[in-house]
Structures are given as C-alpha cells and as structure tokens.
Amino acid sequence: MTKAELIDDCLFCKIIRGEIPSYTVFENDDVKAFLDISQVNEGHVLMVPKKHLTNFFDYSAEDASRFMQCVPEIAKAIKASDPRIQAMNITSNNGEIAGQVVMHSHIHFIPRWEGDGIKFFTRNNADQYDEKKYQEVCDRIKAQF
C-alpha cells in the first residue's frame, strides 16, 4: 500500500504513517497490528489495513484477501504470548450504529480466559421467526449476490 491511499485526518492513517506512536506487534505491506490503547483484556490488539477503508462495506475482494489472510497468524501469536489465553473474541464494528468509533476499518483481537469478567451481550429472537419469515430474510439477502 502507498501513503497516497491514506487520509490526513484519520487517527489510524496517522498511526500507519508513524505520526502517532503505537505498540506495533505485526506489520507487513498490507496491514499493521498494534495494541489497542483501551486494553479490554491484556493483549488486546487492533489490526488495520494500510489502505484507508472506512469499514467492510468499502472492501473489494482483493482488499479482503490481502487484509483477512493475516487474521489467523495474528490471533495465534497473541494466544501464544500468554498462557492465560484460552479463547479470543475477533470482532469488527462496521458503522457508527454498530459501535465503530474510528472510521478506518479495523479488527479487534480480544484475548479471553475463564473469569476475565468480560460480558458480550446478544439476544435470541428465534421465537419471533417461523419457517416463512426465515425464508423471506434468506431470499432477500440471496437476491443481492
């Protein structure tokens, strides 16, 4: 990636350019991975593409291939770094309503271990769906391919 593919006022573009310091754990031509300043759990890492992409809705197939291929390697390195790590949340918030704060695509690697106190909440709405409703939703999405 080239510096021309970055933008001036983006926090993560500034980190990629070295204008803001980071604790970089991995870097190649396509991605940079560094410690998240919040450290939800010790070893919390962010992986960002070195091309400014707002979120996954902006990705081409080539962007995804170049960026996503690094996920397993980074996850394995984080897990191997601390014997407490038993699992990991690998997440991305895409868009402000989904909780994205920095509008430069990024993936969170949040190490997890028994008793770490982190709670991720979801809800189960299965009781609001029947076969017809599931099929309607499925067909609506399938039609977009």
UniProtKB/TrEMBL annotation:
InterPro entries: HINT, Histidine_triad_CS, Histidine_triad_HIT, HIT-like, HIT-like_sf
Source lineage: Bacteria, Bacillati, Bacillota, Bacilli, Lactobacillales
Keyword Hydrolase carried by entry: yes
Organism: Lactobacillus delbrueckii subsp. bulgaricus (strain ATCC 11842 / DSM 20081 / BCRC 10696 / JCM 1002 / NBRC 13953 / NCIMB 11778 / NCTC 12712 / WDCM 00102 / Lb 14)
Domain of life of the native organism: Bacteria
Keyword Disulfide bond: no
PANTHER family linked to this entry: ADENOSINE 5'-MONOPHOSPHORAMIDASE HNT1, HIT FAMILY PROTEIN 1
Name recorded for this polypeptide: Putative hydrolase (HIT family)
One of the Pfam families matching this protein, by short name: HIT
GO biological process: nucleotide metabolic process
Single GO molecular function: hydrolase activity
Enzyme active site: 106
Entry's transmembrane regions: none
Entry keyword set: Hydrolase
Record-annotated HIT domain positions: 11-119
Location of the motif Histidine triad motif: 104-108
